[in-house]
Design goal:
about 350 residues; alpha/beta; six-stranded mixed sheet; elongated
Length: about 350
Amino acid sequence: MSETVPRPTLEAVAARAGVSRATVSRVVNGGDGVREALVERVRRAVEELGYVPNQAARSLVTRRHDAVAVVIAEPETRVFADPFFARQLRGISKELTAHDNQLVLLLTEGRADHARVGRYLAGGHVDGALVFSLHLDDPLPGLIQRAGVPTVFGGRPGWSDGTSGVVYVDSDNRGGAREAVRHLLGLGRTRIAHITGPLDQTSAADRLDGFRDVMADADPHLVAEGDFTPAGGERAMRELLGRRPCLDAVFAGNDLMAAGALRVLREHGRRVPDDVAVAGFDDMLPVAEQTDPPLTTVRQDIEEAGRLMARLLLRGLDGSTAAETPSAAPSGVVLPTTLIRRASA
């Protein structure tokens, strides 16, 4: 059995660099007041010895853990089945990694998990939190507020009136929906249906509002609620065809529901786009380009939204103590959307 090689110590780095232990501590923990020439000597010694700072000791000095909680208010089965979450997590992870921060993923299967997440955040394990996919009756915002953890939300918070200092990143859901419905109208379609997402989420409610902005006098029976899943899209499409078989276009609240709607239309012998034009929302390429026919949809930059959430949080943390809200960040950032035209409409 090979012998364990002892880890290099702070004293060993100090001896190699020819400086005091206190100087090494200030350099590795990001402190000020050390001449650049000494900083370079310490960094060279750290690299040569392979020294890794003790995170617990470093946290005592910096009051930072270099860790951020990502809280997704959805069950595990939904998170890992929906490519939306993978894209958003990729953007968040890239930004945190670039700043040498760890990502701690927290999911909520039920109400008991909300309390667990609240206790974890209040326990001082992370510097801040990124939270998305909230529902209107979700207790998480209150738990997070009581925990005193700096937070950036993904999506416009439904409980915020815009004056409470809540920091969030969202896409132009309402404007994107308007553009998609106007496009369907421009194709000469007059009986346009809408499959909504769960209406206790602001993104779904905003897309429904965008639909109604254009179709103010639309038949209420041409609106059916889905749940942002393919199965939900299938159920809503069957409901719509049962109510209004003469419909000639469908705007689905996301690409997954549009894919489900396309399957049902095919089962019922409806040709797309000849008989029924279909548009979605998100432009998730694994979905939108592989449907039959390829899907016309509204593109939102999901990965960039994730990166921006992390960037706003880290910027706020760099300018405040761990107990403060990221005051330097704007209260809300809304990213633009773009209509991507393919063969379905």
